[in-house]
Amino acid sequence: MSIFTGVNVVNGEKDSSMRYHNITKDDMLNGDGLRVVLWLAGCTHCCKECHNPITWDPDGGLPFDDAARQEIFDQLDKPYISGITFSGGDPLHAANRLDVRGLMKEIKTKYPDKTIWLYTGDSWEDILHYPVMKYVDVLVDGEFKVDLKDTKLLWRGSSNQRVIDVQASLKQTDPANPVLHCGDYA
Ligand code: SF4
């Protein structure tokens, strides 16, 4: 028996509008340079000691509307802003994936020189074929593992996670063997 939920699912992507919790500005902790960060709602990874469990519910937060989109564009208009980071929650949660792809496409068209970073609990090997990857410059992948937590790591919380140069990795003969973006703190 199926129950109508008002949400269509195609290829694991739902066509409902994504929701978000926050847009932070002049952020130095989630990627290179000064960035605008979009914190999306929805995550199914349930990592132990997740720093942001309030974001797990895909129905939480606020609808991502035109005012929120404009707030992001106003930041990206500033020459000193290096780019945008998508975080959460998980931007690749099924409720977000389609809208995230559309927004990234818009940003890459409008701001070709700004970088796009993406944080996800998914592993690179499982998502490298997603169409959204053509817009991503840097991916921080994998679930947060508290037993592998290390504060000396750059841009990531636990040592299983990787900071991946997505476009260089996709050019590899074997893209599943990722090219890393950078080293860690000394
Ligand atoms: S993937 Fe991120 S937001 Fe989701 S449970 Fe893990 S640490 Fe929390």
The pLDDT mean sits at 92
Sheet bearing the most strands, described? 7 strands, mixed
Radius of gyration over all CA atoms, rounded: 16 Å
The residue fraction in helices comes out at: 10-25%
Distance between the termini: 56 Å
What fraction of residues sit in β-strands?
Answer: 15-25%
The low-pLDDT segments are 1-7
- Total number of strands: 9
| SSE arrangement, N to C | EEEEEHEHEHEEH
Q: Order of strands in the sheet with the most strands? A: 5-3-4-6-7-8-9
Summed up, the helix count is 4
Bound molecules: iron/sulfur cluster
Total tally of structural domains:
1
Shape summary? globular
Structural class: alpha/beta
Description of the structure:
This protein is of the alpha/beta class and 186 residues long. It has one domain. Helix content is 18%, strand content 23%. It contains 4 helices and 9 strands. The protein has helices at 66-76, 97-110, 124-127, 166-170, and strands spanning 9-10, 13-14, 19-27, 34-40, 62-63, 81-87, 115-119, 138-141, 162-165. β3 and β4 (34-40) form a beta hairpin. The termini are far apart. Residues 1-7 have low confidence and may be disordered. The protein binds iron/sulfur cluster. Iron/sulfur cluster (SF4) binds at residues 43, 45-47, 50, 52, 55, 88-90, 121, 143-144.
Give short descriptive properties of this protein.
alpha/beta, binds iron/sulfur cluster, globular, 186 residues, two-stranded antiparallel sheet
